[in-house]
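question for whoever is on the cluster today: can someone run the full assembly for these? two chains, 906 residues total. i dont have access anymore since they changed the login thing
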Amino acid sequence: MRARTGALATLASAFALTACATTGTAGETASTSDAKSGKTFAATKAGEPVFASTYKPYPGVPTVLTGATVYDGKGGKIENGVVFMRDGKITAVGGPETPIPADVTVIDGTGKFVTPGIIDIHSHLGDYPSPGVEAHSDGNEATSPTTPEVWAEHSVWPQDPGFTRAMANGGITALQILPGSANLMGGRSVTLKNVPSRTVQGMKFPGAPYSMKMACGENPKRVYGGRGRMPSTRMGNFAVNRETWLSAIDYANDPKAKRDLGKETLAGVLKGEILIQNHCYRADEMALVLDMAKEMGYKVAAFHHAVEAYKIGDLLRENGVCSAIWADWYGFKMESYDGIMENAAFLQREGACVVIHSDDANDIQRLNQEAAKAQAAGLRLGIDISDATVIQWITLNPAKAMGIDKLTGSLETGKMADVVLWNGDPLSVYSRPEKVWIDGALMFDAMNPKTRPVSDFELGQPGEGDVK
Amino acid sequence: MKRLLLIAASAAAITATPAMAQDMVVTNARLVLGDGSAPIDGGTVIIDDGKVVFAGKPTPGQTFSTDIVIDAGGAWVTPGLFATVTTLGLADVTAVEETNDITARGTPFSAALDASKSINPTSQHILVHRAAGITRAATTTLPSGSIFAGQGAIIDLDADAQPVMQARAFQMIDLGEGGGRQAGGSRVAAHVLLRAALREAQALVGKTGIPETTEIGKDDDVYLSRFDAEALVPVVTGRQKLYVAVERAADIRAVLALKAEYPKLDLVLVGVSEGWLVANEIAAAGVPVIANGLNDLPETFEQLGATQSNAGRMAKAGVKVAINASSLQNPRRLQQVAGNLVALTRVPGAAGMEWGKAFAAISSVPAEISGMGGKAGVLKPGALGDVVLWDGDPLEAGSVPTKVFIGGVEQDLTNHQTRLRDRYRELDESARPEAYDW
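^ ran it for u. tokens below:
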């Protein structure tokens, strides 16, 4: 055995510390796992839970919402509906005849609307937090074209005030934090419950799979080509990706391979345990990425930004890939030049999966409005997409593409009670969340100033606790 | 069209009226005047010779001879939107440097920059925003080596070859965090640079030539050349508006205090995230603001007090508030911001704007701030014939114009995006590639 490098030794001790905090003592782990090899020190084994979620649903009371228009998130609409939550779960969803227990809190939603909690598949809250100073710029390990070894959760600052704005104004209950797009392989994402927390572990969405961020196109070749290294072209992008995948395949096939954090992530993708979230703008490039995925034996869960997805809606449908898109961003870089408002509507027409995403600390507060803009663009062309389907673009569809659709994303019996009560039609610019529940706990109430969370950073600052 | 404008001769762009201007009457409109009043059902707009001669509820029996009558069928009809502050016409693709005339890192000039010389009226951004109902805009270069951004222009978004209505309409400077960076590293330095520049300009009033200090610079950076000092003469004499980009309450106060030193300054504040904290002082100074509409995050240490209620609270204190387009993903989101200000009137504890006032904040108010009061962003006798018919409530997410008239001339609403839309209406390449579909 070769001697460990200093860096690896440090890493191992960091892992050991975490193991202490989550699975008992490091000593136990070491002695059980490496008794045979005679090694004194060892990290937790690959695949064992590390940085595990400590999130537990906050206390809620059994609550019934009545009289509201309910969008269930999977394309259904119930007028004068009933939604019943108990013990953090949805226990009943139905029409006005749905039986209600006598001993529960009843909220009259007459004239209001209920949707599942809104989910943003593409956010950088916490890893590019506010204030956006250099000291906080933690979203992109832009030091190598491939950094599959980095994990976004290690950059998330839970005190980012952006989390609470997203909840109060956007009804966001779950979100995926992605590494940036300077790298071909940017590292693992983390899926969070949008709850205030002292630690990122306290936000980690229990049971959510990891994703890995990939980026095609302009960014990687600009960033690394600009430093005189590969890739400096789109063909360089693909070459580096393919070489990296081949070497990951070798690693995944070798039971004796020495642990390698980056290759562990890539092997997780090959095994189907880790999803791929792929930043990609141009249609032709998405088609190439799909072929590369076939070549190497992995699947793309979603193309992000995908401003040209409308040109290949058929191909995206056939490959079962979602497009996570904006309503109206265009023209800021060459590969966004062909962005059009009808992108979502054309994808829906082709039967491809549509997700509306933000990639932005302001737009995450208005995903419902972005979805409405995209819907309106379709209607003008005679593509009539129902309000209930449009709500699915920001609830169940992102949940699917993030691998959490069995747990949340729709109002169905047994699912997490992630629910928003809106003071009006959620697809209208004039509406805002009135109440937001996460796992049945009332985490925001517009009617009660004390249910507006204030992050540590904001204490004592001008406007602390203001409506914001 | 523009010949009807009475602007100081030095800055007026005189052009012939296009032959296409036709007299018209729009009837049966859900009419928005743009002056802050509530919409009028059954409204009529009459355009004669490119100008508004009547807008409101017609009296029974009123007649008017005209070329065209448009029955709006109850649709919303508004004045054209006025976007400020923008960079429209100065870049094709902002990240593609050779197409981007917004900044110039290598130039020794700053205040002397004059955006009006390089506005491209066929820029896709102008075409896209015309189709979004924006008919006039303030457009400007941005600071890129000194606190002075240069001189912005007021433009129209019509299809003729003359986009500039008023060249050198305003000078813009940054006196916040960004200005500190541009001035060598601090706000303190930025304020010294500003005063040095204004002093040089003051010395040049009534004459031309070389200022006392021929150049202010450090190493290879020029913060102020003699040409920039000359360009600031209309600022110190109050003939040219001075837009000051500033966010923090303390910085806003420092800008208002400039009036004591330079009483002639015609100040406008831009950004103003913490304006609500000093709203009474801004109102007392009579300085209008072009404010960030929905920024509610402490994105910087100068925006710790940022709240969506900022615009509403300032308006309530008597400040003249227009919505800032430069903080948006693109200016066509102005209508959405205004709609959100209306939404805030229904949020407990928040301050927003009633519908008419919110619409005015993206039409008549920015026009007034831009020196186009009574001419643009409003439908009343004497105003330019900028009329927009909408497919829905113009402040509702997703509403778009069905017809846009600028100076009484109906505009072509096609652009790169609409052509892509039409090409990809269906994906059928069974006979020929999509490339033949045009």
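summary bc i know u wont read the tokens: DSSP finds twelve helices and 17 strands in chain A. Confidence is low (pLDDT under 50) at residues 1-33 of chain A.
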